[in-house]
Amino acid sequence: MSTHTANAAATHNESMFEAVLARLDIAAKLMNLSDDVSLILRNPLKQVKVSLPVMMDNGKIQVFEGYRVVHSVAIGPSKGGIRYAMDVNQDEVMALAAWMSFKCAVANLPYGGAKGGIKCDPRAMSVGELERLTRAYAKSMKDVFGVNKDIPAPDMGTSGREMAWILDEYNKMMGEDLPGVITGKPIAIGGSLGRDAATGRGVMVNTMAALKRMGKKPGEVTAVVQGFGNVGSHSARLLSEQGVKIVGIGDHTASFYNEKGIDIKAALDFVAKNNRVLKGFKGATEIASDDLLTSKCDVLVPAALQNVITEDVASKIQAKLVVEGANGPTMPEADHIFKERNIIVVPDILANSGGVTVSYFEWVQNKAGYYWSEDEVNTKHDEKMELAFANVWNNAEQFKTTMRIAAYITALQKIEQGVKLKGHY
Ligand code: NAD
To answer: Which of 4, 270, 323 is the best mutation target for the ligand 1 pocket, counting ligand atoms within 8 Å of the beta carbon and taking the most?
Structure first.
């Protein structure tokens, strides 16, 4: 993943963990969650902060801040990505770790939640500097990471390349090959087929499931997708393959609209030859980026930044269905507008859980030492995602609440069982 999203989101990060807790409280009250479990989940299990001295190319040492937060291990080892961005801080990592606990529980994966990060600007660093920083981070996390303990993955600013360095460093410390200690690896060293497109695939499966419940056929609806990176581009491609007409796309360089439908294959070919950005694309009319989210469509997929849907934006959105490809695109104060306007929101912890689901499959394949075909991965993914959607939808009906709160309830029902069955001191 690239770092485009990092800086634009920085201004809203101050209270991210509080925002998670606010939604947890609403769900906890509705489902009558035990106070003990609620208290446990308000306090991440482990918070590690490290200083990482790294020799830069200019011969001088720079010291970087590194974090890893393990939020919960109630239903299995903790799982969560590592983010490289300048706005990485304790609060953000705590919030993202908690989201991972809920995301894994919603997707019915045997994992708790964690997240890690390094405060750095990867785009301003050489490959050598990034490798030394990544290896220093991996070394400092020797006692945190583990195949059956805490399993990291890529997040913003990191990719399979960093995962390979971490695996190599970890293997050297342990003296054996342990590919299951990390997911999102390149295929040649134990990665899973289907992982690259998995988050977009999850967005597509969730969209299809929601449209079905709304009594709409994919061929009758239009969609707008914000973000044309990993999640956005695969979402747009897979939705269009289902017959959805994609009328709007955009990234940090430009946004486009075409009511007749955009040829997504042409857009993908264009970005592949254009430094992975949309600026200059000729298949649609360029529009102001601020207008993309509120442009005319039936389905909106925010798949770029967090906190882009404010109360004001929510009140202008024309879509009847919002499927959150990005983490945290909707500000908590905008939730009630969607509710009042009867706009269905498939929340991030459900909508983008396809990525961690296939990460789980990667871990299972690593442990078995036996690798599946892409079709097998996709079939298993789709089954899991459809079940997760149905569970959340049913809870939304049963508790007469939004899909977002229902997703928290679904997760908390599972985590509560884990906490209670394992017991306390
Ligand atoms: P990416 O870096 O591959 O793509 C991000 C896209 O957002 C790029 O196209 C970029 O140009 C665009 N963007 C940045 N700023 C923008 C702006 N101001 N306006 C419009 N577009 C803008 O990242 P990604 O992996 O696609 O992740 C996107 C979101 O999805 C993040 O919130 C991430 O945490 C979340 N997510 C990703 C995965 C995954 O497997 N990649 C899994 C779960 C959640």
So the answer is: 4
